[in-house]
# Entry
Amino acid sequence: MNQESTQRDNLASVAKLLKQLDICMLTTRAANGDLHGRPMSNNGEVEFDGDSWFFSFEDSRKVREIDADALTEMAFIDTQNGTWVNVEGEATVVRDDPKRKRALAGGPRALVL
# Structure
């Protein structure tokens, strides 16, 4: 099995788990190094392709922190079923994107992370 097919299989496994786990703790880092976590909805209605999309107000602390330091962490847990998923990566604040506009259609007028 080559690296590309392994990554594809791993992504499929994570996607299957995340479809069942709606709420995560999204952690960002402040300028002074403090970590800030807050619950965010993963919106299990969308297909996971390796990107997680969240809605937020543009003037929120999390958006300012992501703009300053893109390293983030998402922690999902389903104690009842014994499922824990921790994902680390770099976040991008999307301010003008066709995918964002489709995600916002008919929903809250906010920013997508």
The helical segments are 3-20, 61-68, 98-104. Residues 108-113 have pLDDT under 50 and may be disordered.
